[in-house]
Amino acid sequence: MQGRTGVGIWAGFAAIMVWCLLPVVWIIMLSFKSVDETSAGSPQFFPQDFTLANYGDILSDSDFTNALINSFGISLIATVLSVIFATFTAYAIARLEFRGKKLVLSIALAIAMFPVVALVGPLFDMWRTFGLFNTWPGLIIPYMSFTLPLAIWTLSAFFREIPWEMEQAAQVDGATSWQAFRKVIVPLAAPGVFTAAILTFFFAWNEFVLAISLTTTVDGGATSTGARTVPAQMSFFVGPDPFNPPYSQLATASVVVTIPIIVIVLLFQRKIVAGLTSGAVKG
Amino acid sequence: MAAIDMKNIVKKYGDGFPAVNDVSIDVADGEFMILVGPSGCGKSTLLRMIVGLEDITEGEMVIGDKVVNDLAPRDRNLAMVFQNYALYPHLTVFENIAFPLRLAGVSDDEVDRLVREASKTLELDEHLDRKPGNLSGGQRQRVAMGRAIVRDADAFLFDEPLSNLDAKLRGQMRTEISRLQKRLGITTVYVTHDQTEAMTLGDRVAVLKRGVLQQLATPRELYVNPGNLFVAGFIGSPPMNFLPATVEGRTVKLPFGEVQIPEEHARKAEGKGLLIAGIRPEHFEDASVKQDTSEGSTFRATVDVVEWLGNEAYAYIPFEAGSEVRDQLAELERDLEGESMRSQLVVSLDGASRVAEGDEAEIWVDTSKIHLFDPATGENLTVDLEHAGRIPANDDPEALAEAERRADEGEAERAQAQGA
């Protein structure tokens, strides 16, 4: 009986793995094939001639590396700022009684639900007027705005879980409000902070609509990547054959942009899972 | 180290509810002061006002010779143990205890020395590297105390520190706290609703009800000379028996018979009409095991239930209270958070007594220990004022009446607000 359920579980597990990972493996395989192989009709699953040439090409392509730098810079700055602002806001919402608290929360939620596409037009015009078009801040500001609500909601839930006594104990022990916040509350809310940070980073890293609309390659007459991030840049890839999309290079770029995400998740997943508040109070 | 002087402290919450009404308590340097009362009596609020976690609406809080009303908690140099310990879960036991020192900017060597000293006192040495989450309740309790004793605080404040422990551990920690306080000789204010803790730990005990100070005295004074019905009912376990009584000359008429009380007591109660007599269970005895019954009076009554505990036995004798005092006793019962099922006399008998359920027994009562209370005000008419500590009702009856009135108003308003 046990053996049969074990087999069933493994069969189901394998089916799900194939369903989820086959496209990923396909992309990885594509990235190891030469351009000739991908443009010749229907290629086979495994590369005929295993080659790393695509990786060499793509990493020496300055457009791609610039886009990669843009992606990292914009995503990191948007994440850091968003998490800092969200931490303060969430703390105030969790701890202070003030008028309009509900309003702040519901507006934040409304912003999160607002479709991004509806903002593209107005933002395009505004950013051109303000000189923010095709700049890092031009992307960082909307990314922050869209991720703040989620971060605020996540973090205020975490702050609410932390017993008031923790802070009061710290204050009696001689801490200022700021010290109590920094030395007791923030460490306890760390899982929440990491969760918010990762969600924000993912959003900024993968975002496409704003990235392609609010940037341009033509910057003051000179050809460059401007503030374009990787997802947008990839849509402009041109291979050696102008009539065929450069499948292998696109696949390679996809693999390259996925690696940082995997690394980040592996680094922080333990932080997210760890329930740090256990043992604070009697239980 | 410092004395704590509370002068006419008033606390009103944002919704106007008066949690503490005109309370004045002076805690001497090195004294162990207990704040005790049923839940909602304002004892924790008072403690939090001392430490600075609650604002003081009116009155003056003096620690040492400094008025601290407007000082932040960290500027008051007090150490507090919270009811749920409030340990920092992300720090080891060592760092938890060291936390106040680190904030004060003490050097690492000094921190190490002081923390190890404290951990030795509390026998936490082998747990220093563990996180609070891995400790038992008693160990967490000790860590919380370690955090308090590690610094040179002016006073210790305890907010029901033992209420989360099981009975056995509670007894041990109680002794431990007492020993520690005696050794360190530090001013201590201790909040509890447990009267055993109040009686055993305190140099003096402040009994509070609905934010009003009822009596401030040593445990012995509270027990022997309660200032009013509430204190009499609150201190002592099993509680004092309350019976309707009328006094004529030296004779007191009780539901189960007439007894003679001392001349001086009788004089104080003269012409007051119907009174409430308070008699502690241990002031009764089975007349058959009592050799010398000449001092008091005896009466015969049918025993309903007997609980034999070995060293003593509790006998329950039902009686009719009469409608005149029933309301007063019911209100008292509410104040004490009790649930009075029926009016009955609890009598503590010697373990040698052979009285059984259903027997009609001859019970002796020590009439010199009978207290007589005014049913209208609850005041103890037979109190020995020289040995009763401070009873605010006697110092300044008007101020107390005013405080009581405000407590009534606040309760009525809150009830209304909740009803709406």
TrEMBL record, chain A:
It is found in: Cell membrane. Residues 68-268 form the ABC transmembrane type-1 domain. Pfam families: BPD_transp_1. It is a multi-pass membrane protein. Coiled coil: none annotated. Keywords: Cell membrane, Membrane, Transmembrane, Transmembrane helix, Transport. PROSITE patterns: ABC_TM1. The keyword Phosphoprotein does not apply. InterPro entries: BP-dep_ABC_trans_perm, MetI-like, MetI-like_sf. GO terms for biological process: transmembrane transport. The chain crosses the membrane at residues 7-29, 67-91, 103-124, 136-159, 184-205, 247-268. GO terms for cellular component: plasma membrane. PANTHER family: INNER MEMBRANE ABC TRANSPORTER PERMEASE PROTEIN YCJP, MALTOSE TRANSPORT SYSTEM PERMEASE-RELATED. Belongs to the binding-protein-dependent transport system permease family. This is Carbohydrate ABC transporter permease. It comes from Nocardioides donggukensis.
From TrEMBL, chain B:
Residues 402-414 have a biased composition (Basic and acidic residues). CDD domains: ABC_MalK_N. One of its GO terms (cellular component) is ATP-binding cassette (ABC) transporter complex, substrate-binding subunit-containing. The keyword Cytoplasm does not apply. Residues 4-235 form the ABC transporter domain. Keywords: ATP-binding, Cell membrane, Membrane, Nucleotide-binding, Translocase, Transport. Pfam families: ABC_tran, OB_MalK. GO terms for molecular function: ABC-type transporter activity; ATP binding; ATP hydrolysis activity. Residues 390-420 are annotated as: Disordered. GO terms for biological process: carbohydrate transport. PANTHER family: MALTODEXTRIN IMPORT ATP-BINDING PROTEIN MSMX, TREHALOSE IMPORT ATP-BINDING PROTEIN SUGC. This is Sn-glycerol-3-phosphate ABC transporter ATP-binding protein UgpC. It comes from Nocardioides donggukensis.
